[in-house]
Design brief:
The complex is a heterotrimer.
Chain A: E1 15-28, E2 31-44, E3 48-52, H1 59-67, E4 75-83, E5 86-87, H2 93-99, E6 104-107, H3 111-114, H4 121-133, H5 137-150, H6 156-159, H7 169-181, E7 187-191, H8 199-216, E8 219-224, H9 227-231, E9 236-241, E10 244-250, H10 251-256, H11 261-269, H12 309-313, E11 319-321, E12 324-329
Parallel strand pairs in A: 3-8, 3-9, 6-7, 7-8
Antiparallel strand pairs in A: 1-2, 1-4, 4-5, 9-10, 10-12, 11-12
Chain B: H1 2-27, H2 35-40, H3 46-56, H4 62-74, E1 80-81, E2 86-87, H5 88-123, H6 128-140, H7 145-159, H8 176-210, H9 213-220, H10 225-247, H11 249-263, H12 268-277, H13 281-309
Antiparallel strand pairs in B: 1-2
Chain C: H1 4-39, H2 75-111, H3 113-128, H4 131-142, H5 146-173, H6 176-183, H7 188-224, H8 236-243, H9 252-285
The chains are: A alpha/beta, B mainly alpha, C mainly alpha.
Chain lengths: ~350, ~325, ~290
């Protein structure tokens, strides 16, 4: 592994989550798949981090690794995930169960499958409340209805008795959000919360998340493959490729001064409404790499427009952008340098 | 809409019961020679002949015979057995409770074994426990009840003297623990067949359910493994399991016959084999009818349960 | 949720390799049992009915490999000759079921409409009926010669085979290659034989084997109750029935027939299971 020049500042005031050198690998018939490689970042309270990458970049595995929700068989983890000072990777199952839902929640990608089809939605919300806040059935019920109202579901009293199949995709996602925020967690992980939804509904859901987050002063990690989704709603963005973070910066700075060619490619492949009609949709040529084979050199090299010989043979470390300690990228031949 | 569906299913049930009654009725006519002589055998006095003629209406045209017989049956009169010298209905009423007890006991054992076992296996698929359980249940398919009961008696009664051998049955009213003691071995043997069916069904259902997103969601809420298993994973399968139990009744009956035969438990199976041995055709006919009707009715309810819980099964 | 699948898949692949050995062992055992049954008269087995009074309840030994029963008859030869009953009943009944039930199933599925509704309804009635009771009823009134039993068991197996074949045919009948054959004017008969049958056949084979096992168990129970072939003719069920009286004296009377039955049924189940896995997988890929 190439030596890293990155130094994290010592725990800042208000730091909620700190991930250090997280590695996650799976045993598969094809070999060991390295889904998450040396990921490090930190997140302060009430701040939003966006994690962007193509499918297969490891972002979902990352979110599950942070939560600690991966199956134990055939999975190896290393590194640290410090949440409120506690290392989640070495915590016991019962300690984790106290954290899940109460201090840290996950919003799933597909609202169609995230809810139990046989149970009424009111009860599904109440389950969380009764588990952690030890409310009585009646109290939990009232509270669920209130939560449904807060996530913008009309006639919440009636809807609480409905089954998930009776609700539309957007509504279901709101219910999932209600469940996630029920016990007022400090950290919300939203894994592609809008991917399965209609375009019109997507904005609503993202706005809702924003609102709830600021009301409750939650930190959020927003995961998406769509730069557009994270562009306006995050304080900081981390770009992932092949299980690694390849660029990380406060949002405005990232867009103003992106250094990693992959970030540029991502941006260019997002269709923009201002483009004249019939503009060709740009895609990134090639395919995401096979994570069961660790190769030398930069994992993006085969698809990069600016690739050099060094890119193919040495893995670029994550380094600072000049004097800006908030902006890091991993590239030998970043944008803005002379060829 | 639902009423239409129920009505149609019920009509089907009546139709099936009608066909069964026809079948049972015509059994008598399968006998070689004159049915009266065959049925009465040695007790063929003129008096008995007359009684039997009246009972079966053998001097009437065939469709009327059927109606007479059917009328009798529906009034609870299954005939008088000249060989046992009692009403067949009495014989059946005395035997029936033993079968009920066997079924109840065996199913209690079966469910309390199969459900936890399937849960433990589904939790860690392909673990040692899972593989052992799957292999054991597969092997059990090759051990029918009559083999198991003989082996069971050989090992537990003859060799180890833990359970009693043939003839130890005592009605509950005469001794609760003696009764249970005598019933454990046959119930265990019957339970094994059921455990195999329930385990296989539940395990594969649970493995599939546990991979669903909403299970992970429940975990992310902080629910314990136990809670997830019982409240989230098991729920969708529970009704299917009950319905399977009902459908399983057919093979339970078959199993009950053989265990009763070996251990001399005075249930329907034992009475049936006795009746065959004594050429008591009326009793045979009646027992077959009662058993068939019971199984069909139970199956009907099971089928009904299945179609209610699974809206995909067409209600046409 | 891709996390779970790679982990489960690898173990299934491992177990499919070991099934290969077991599969062939099972096939071999079935072949052996059938061959012995067929050629028993030509092989140096003792007469299954010869009563050697010196050897009553003898244990296994050089003269009698599996010992003798209470009448001095050699257990091994009784098991071999007795297997004939199970094999004839099993394969005979299923042959009837497959030919009649299978044909009806394919025709009903292909023709649909009134034919399908009537036949399905009629056979649905039979399906609800418990098999053993049905057989006992008929046998008690009609007689217990082996051919009668086989016939009755065959009739009893028609509904289930009908259902399986019908369902399988239905899934194929709507596919393009059948429609294509119809558009070029192929006759119904030709379509059924040349297009549908080859596809339905693999499903039928696996299911039929399970049917054979079921029939063997039913006949075994029947024999055990004393309702099948009469003494002195041996059958596995008969032997177990006769062993009842001597449980305390001669456990071999129970153990060997039980083992014979167990091994054969296990072999059939293994073969059927493996075939089903193999053939169903191909189905999925279509």
């Amino acid at each position: 592994m190439a030596e890293r020049e990155l130094q994290f500042p010592s725990p800042a005031r208000g730091e909620l989550l700190r991930v250090e050198d997280l590695n996650t690998a799976f045993e598969t018939p094809r070999g060991l798949v390295h889904a998450v490689n040396n990921v490090s970042f930190s997140l302060e309270r009430s701040k939003t981090l966006g994690i962007v990458g193509e499918s297969g970049s490891g972002k979902t595995v990352l979110s599950r690794s942070i939560m600690g929700l991966l199956p134990s068989a055939g999975v190896s983890n290393s590194g640290k995930v410090l949440f409120e000072g506690k290392d989640l990777l070495s915590a016991s199952p019962s300690e984790m169960r106290d954290i899940w839902g109460a201090r840290m929640s996950l919003i799933f990608q597909d609202p169609m499958t995230a809810l139990n089809p046989c149970t009424r939605i009111g009860k599904q919300i109440a389950e969380s409340l009764r588990l952690h806040l030890k409310l009585s059935a009646k109290e939990a019920n009232l509270h669920s209805i209130e939560l449904l109202r807060q996530v913008g579901i009309p006639s919440p009293g009636e809807r609480a008795e409905a089954y998930p199949t009776q609700l539309s995709g957007g509504m279901r996602q709101r219910v999932v959000i209600a469940i996630a925020i029920a016990c007022a967690p400090r950290l919300l992980l939203a894994d592609e919360p809008t991917t399965g939804l209609d375009v019109t509904v997507q904005a609503q859901i993202l706005d809702l998340l924003d609102e709830l987050r600021s009301e409750r002063e939650m930190a959020m990690i927003l995961i998406s493959h769509d730069l557009g989704v994270v562009a306006t709603r995050t304080d900081e963005i981390a770009v992932m490729y092949a299980g690694r973070i390849v660029e990380k910066a406060p949002t405005k700075r990232l867009f103003a001064n992106m250094r990693m060619p992959y970030t540029e490619a991502l941006l260019q492949s997002t269709p923009k409404i201002e483009n004249p009609s019939h503009t060709r949709l740009q895609t990134i040529p090639g395919n995401p790499p096979d994570l069961s084979k660790i190769s030398e050199g930069c994992s993006f090299a085969p698809r990069c427009a600016y690739v050099t010989e060094q890119c193919r043979t040495q893995t670029p470390p994550l380094r600072q952008n000049g004097t800006d300690s908030t902006h890091h990228f991993a590239c030998w031949n970043p944008l803005g340098t002379e060829a | 809409m639902l009423w239409k569906f129920i009505a149609r299913r019920f009509a089907a049930l009546v139709g099936i019961l009608f066909v069964i009654s026809l079948g049972a009725f015509f059994l008598i006519h399968l006998l070689p020679g004159d049915p009266i002589i065959t049925i009465l055998g040695p007790s063929a006095t003129n008096e008995n002949r007359r009684i039997l003629m009246a009972q079966l209406g053998l001097d009437q045209p065939i469709y009327q015979q059927y109606l007479t017989w059917l009328g009798n049956v529906l009034h609870g009169n299954l005939g008088f057995s000249f060989i046992q010298h009692q009403n067949v209905t009495t014989t059946i009423a005395n035997s029936f409770p033993i079968d009920v007890e066997l079924v109840v006991l065996s199913q209690i054992i079966a469910f309390s074994t199969a459900v936890p076992l399937a849960m433990a296996a589904a939790k860690r698929p392909n673990s040692l426990l899972d593989r052992l359980a799957t292999t054991a249940t597969f092997a059990a398919l090759a051990l029918p009840s009559f083999v198991l009961i003989v082996l069971g008696v050989l090992v537990f009664a003859v060799h180890f003297h833990i359970f009693p051998g043939p003839g130890a049955y005592v009605p509950i009213s005469q001794g609760f623990w003696t009764n249970i003691h005598a019933m454990i071995l046959p119930s265990l043997v019957l339970a094994i067949g059921s455990v195999v069916v329930y385990f296989r069904l539940l395990r594969s259902d649970l493995v599939a359910t546990l991979q669903e997103d909403y299970i992970l969601m429940a975990r992310s809420k902080g629910a314990s493994d136990r809670r997830i298993m019982w409240r989230h994973a098991f729920r969708p399968s529970s009704v299917a399991l009950l319905a399977t139990a009902a459908i399983n009744i057919g093979s339970l009956i078959a199993g009950a016959f053989v265990v009763e035969y070996l251990l001399q438990l005075p249930g329907l199976g034992y009475s049936l084999v006795n009746a065959i041995g004594q050429d008591d055709y009326l009793t045979i006919q009646a027992i077959v009818l009662v058993v068939a009707v019971s199984v069909v009715v139970i199956n009907f309810f099971a089928d009904f349960m299945f179609s209610i819980i699974d809206p995909r099964i067409s209600r046409d | 949720m891709t996390e779970a699948s790679p982990i489960v898949a690898s173990s299934e692949q491992e177990s499919s390799k070991t099934m290969g050995i077991l599969f062939w062992l099972a096939v071999g055992w079935i072949g052996l049992t059938v061959s012995l049954a067929v050629f028993a008269n030509l092989l140096p087995f003792q007469d299954p009915n010869y009563q050697n009074f010196e050897a009553i309840n003898a244990g296994p030994g050089m003269a009698h490999w599996l010992g003798c029963d209470d009448l001095g008859r050699d257990i091994l030869s009784r098991i071999v000759f007795g297997s004939r009953v199970s094999l004839i009943a099993g394969f005979g009944a299923i042959a009837i079921g497959v030919v009649v039930g299978g044909s009806l199933g394919m025709i009903a599925a292909y023709r649909r409409g009134l034919v399908d509704t009537l036949v399905s309804a009629a056979l649905y009635v039979m399906l609800a009926f418990p098999g053993l009771v049905f057989v006992i009823a008929i046998v008690a009134f009609w007689g217990h010669e082996l051919w009668k039993i086989t016939l009755v068991l065959g009739i009893a197996s028609i509904p289930i085979l009908f259902r399986v074949v019908r369902a399988s045919t239905l899934s194929f009948a709507t596919r393009d290659f059948v429609v294509a054959a119809q558009t070029i004017g192929a006759s119904d008969r030709r379509i059924i034989f040349k297009e549908l049958l080859p596809n339905v056949f693999p499903v039928m084979v696996s299911f039929s084997l399970i049917g054979v096992a079921t029939v063997i168990i039913t006949e075994g129970a029947l024999s055990f109750l004393g309702l099948s072939v009469e003494a002195p003719m041996p059958s596995w069920g008969n032997m177990l029935n006769e062993s009842r009286t001597y449980l305390d004296q001669n456990p071999w009377l129970v153990l060997f027939p039980a083992l014979a039955m167990f091994l054969f049924l296990l072999a059939i189940n293994l073969v059927a299971d493996r075939l089903r896995q193999r053939l169903d997988v191909t189905e999925g890929k279509l």
